[in-house]
Design a protein that fits this description.
Blueprint: H1 2-9, E1 11-14, H2 20-32, E2 42-43, E3 46-48, E4 57-60, H3 68-71, H4 79-86, E5 96-106, E6 112-115, E7 129-130, E8 133-134, E9 139-144, E10 155-157, E11 189-191, E12 198-202, E13 207-209, E14 218-227, H5 240-245, H6 248-254, H7 272-283
Antiparallel strand pairs: 1-12, 2-3, 3-4, 4-5, 5-14, 6-13, 7-8, 9-12, 9-14, 10-11, 10-13
Length: 284
């Protein structure tokens, strides 16, 4: 049923995806973020890069902060989903890569206009189901660290738009494609979440963030998973310090294909799955 709904709508809501202890640790990290960090400023290896002035404070490459953010890499609440939907299972490039990891804090008045959708969409965000297998260019996990209900700036989605053949009529009216308003078309829904829930969605579904009208702060973490051959969207690179302290499984997601530079004393393989199969064959 979950596969059916993901194919039909383009998203799933994973209830209680983050355990309370991890939630507390993540919120404690958010409490320490410098609110006066300028655009382009760095905090523990993460850089402030707001998508636009209305989206709130956003730290990109947040995995470099370490601690609880590392525990999210292979969280069992969603790992099997992203492997199935974006990991090209059974192919010679099987594996995952996190190409964006972002923290977001939004206060009253902030919103993010509708964007994406299948129509003239980038290959990176494509949705495909073929020969009995999902092949998605990017599957996002949006984690709610606070309750996100009515007036809290919930993520908006147009269900099924990951398969649409036509553009959204008059997108500027809804804050899309550079628009400045925050209205919603009647075909859109708000994906309201409880603290600890996660919204899983293919990037090709049209989505955005509704206007926050309540006081307080909306806190989310977003990890974008794609196939093993991907690269980070803005050119960020994971530091050797981060990679070296990770478990092998987590490192294989951040560095699925280790770099091979001139003079290195090893012969590279194509992806983690290839290396694993070679080891299994040698063991037999």
């Amino acid at each position: 049923m979950e596969d059916y709904l993901f194919d039909l709508r383009g998203y799933l809501i994973l209830k209680n995806a983050i355990e309370p202890q991890l939630l507390d640790a993540l919120n404690a990290e958010f409490d320490q973020f410098p609110r006066d960090l300028p655009m382009g400023g760095w905090y523990k290896g993460a850089q402030r890069r707001d998508y636009n002035p209305a989206t709130g404070m956003e730290l990109h490459h947040c995995l470099e902060i370490g601690g609880p953010f590392e525990e999210l890499i292979d969280n069992p609440s969603w790992l099997a989903y992203v492997q199935k939907y974006a990991g090209e299972q059974g192919t010679y490039v099987e594996g995952l890569f996190i190409d964006e990891c972002i923290t977001s804090q939004r206060t009253s008045g902030g919103f993010h206009g509708l964007h994406s959708g299948r129509y003239k969409g980038a290959l990176r965000g494509k949705y495909l189901y073929e020969n009995g297998q999902f092949t998605c260019g990017q599957v996002n996990i949006l984690m709610a660290l606070t309750d996100i209900g009515e007036g809290d700036g919930a993520t908006t989605i147009i269900p099924g738009s990951h398969k649409s053949n036509l553009p959204l009529p008059h997108p500027r009216e809804y804050g899309g494609e550079g628009g400045k308003t925050d209205g919603l078309p009647e075909c859109a829904i708000e994906a309201q979440l409880k603290k600890g829930d996660a919204l899983l969605f293919v990037d090709g579904v049209m989505h955005g963030g509704s206007n926050r009208t309540n006081p307080g702060e909306r806190r989310v973490v977003i990890y974008r998973y794609g196939p093993s051959w991907g690269r980070t969207r803005y050119g960020y690179e994971y530091s050797p310090e981060l990679l070296n302290r990770l478990t092998p499984q987590r490192r294989a997601i951040l560095e699925p294909v280790p770099p091979c530079r001139p003079g290195d004393d090893f012969i590279p393989v194509e992806a983690p799955a290839v290396a694993r199969r070679a080891r299994e064959a040698a063991a037999k």
